[in-house]
Amino acid sequence: MRSLADRMRTYEQQKARLADTEAKLKLAEKRARARRLIETGSLIEKAGLSSFASEALYGALLSLRDSAANSKQVEQWAALGARVLAEEAHTRDQSREPIVLTFPATLTKDAVSALRTGGFRFNKVLQHWEGLAEFEEAQELAASQGGIARKVASSFSQPVPPNAGSDDKARAEAK
Predict the structure, then answer these.
(1) So what CATH class is 96-151?
(2) What is the end-to-end Cα distance of the chain in Å, rounded?
(3) pLDDT of 166 above 70
(4) pTM score, two decimals?
(5) CA angle, corner 149, sides to 146 and 151, nearest 5?
(6) Per-domain boundaries in the chain
(7) Rounded to an integer, what distance in angstroms lies between the CA atom of residue 24 and that of residue 35?
(8) pLDDT tens for residues 46-87?
């Protein structure tokens, strides 16, 4: 049978673990909220509303809140927003292509930061940096660290099965 002191020590340890878990959850919530506020601010900037006076912007947002009760209106806003964001992404990525960067030696923290800022990520399996970028910019970035940039052939279209469309041809010939 365990003594009272042992049980008290066990309960104190459990209490400390719960407090640690609670602190981690609060920190995660705080980070998620900060991320959402930053995202909201950048959307206001993208929409061209950041030049509004604070009172005018707040009033505009309040009128949006009042309209948000109409589910059809919210669906229209979502469709418009999705379409414009997709167009912006397409325009942004149009001149970008898949590129692989290789380096002869381990990179400094500043170099790694520059690569990540340039949209590259490290592939641990293949031991290279990869990302979508304009080739000339990637070449300059790689050369600044003694590395090499190379384009990666890619096809974003789906392969066509060998018998695709044969039913369509048969129907057309039957007419």
Answers:
(1) alpha beta
(2) 91
(3) no
(4) 0.53
(5) 175
(6) 1-46, 96-151
(7) 16
(8) 999 999 999 999 999 999 999 998 999 999 999 999 999 999
CA distance 141 to 135: 10
Average pLDDT taken over every residue of the chain:
88
Hey, what amino acid is at 3?
Answer: S
Q: Which residues of 1-32 are buried (b: 16+ CB within 10 A; e: fewer)?
A: eeeeeeeeeeeeeeeeeeeeeeeeeeeeeeee
Contacts of 141 (CB under 8 A, 6+ apart): 101, 114, 115, 118, 133, 149
CB 60 within 8 A of CB 52: yes
